[in-house]
Amino acid sequence: AIPGRLNQGDAILETYRCRPADCWSEPRQFDGWVYSGVRLKLTSPLSLIPPSEFPRLQYRLSGKTGFQMWRHGLSMRRCNFSGDIAVEGLVELNETMEHIDVCVRSEIGDKDACLVELRELVAASARVSPHFDCGVLMAESLKTHVDTERHVAHGAGPGGRAALTPAAWLQATAPREARLPPHPPGHPELPGAASGGPAAAATPRDDSGGAPPANLPRHTKRRRTEPVSTHTASAAPSVAVVVSCPE
Question: What is the DSSP string of 28-60?
Fold first, then answer.
């Protein structure tokens, strides 16, 4: 089905008007499940999300694993080899077209995967309008699986972090231990590499001090090291950067 046609009255598209039963279904037990969510609400109560913008959002996210869509929503799902839900995402536009709820959950309790997916979905949803207030949805209200009972715990409006984009606000709001590095997902930073931890000790180092080995041919390029000071809040040690220069 074409996203833009889901708002029309074709009888053949009636099945796409409601959320599929296998999307965001309520589990029998919540042991091990992790829920999280963000609400993007228009700043002005007199404004509405244009009807043409949400189909565009559905199209932008149509490449997600396990993608499904219906009139006012979409979902994605990624499972592990055992068939358990590693992360499931839900993006829904409310009936009055005033806000978008972005929710994620994991059956195996993978908080990092949930946060990565949540940030990607929020960043895509924020393109619908430049005038969104952000709010964190209460996990307990998400577990009720009642769309009208999702409650905002706290958020930021025009008087708070209005200068931040929703994705940047989400990064600043996330717990310190769950914050993501600024680089894109898929290129994880080694734990402790920035603070001289075990990963930093495992990083190859050049301790030659810039002097070439005795058996190095004259035509071979020499390497020298230059200390570079890092200005981090944790007073990280200097890092040696390898620079190549001709003999």
Answer: S--TT-EEEEEEEEES-TT----TTHHHHHHHH
